[in-house]
Amino acid sequence: MRSEGALLELRTDLKTFKREEAALARDIGEQQSTLATCLRGSKRKSVSWNG
């Protein structure tokens, strides 16, 4: 019976970990998108400054 409880706890921990991992992946994707947008904007500005 103890092993069943431990197994249930591990499954719960794994589900929590997977949820957190997915949330972090979304956050990283959003940050990469924001960074790419900023970099594209700064390249446009540098071209206009030189033009």
TrEMBL record:
Name of the protein in its database record: Uncharacterized protein
Origin species: Cardiobacterium valvarum F0432
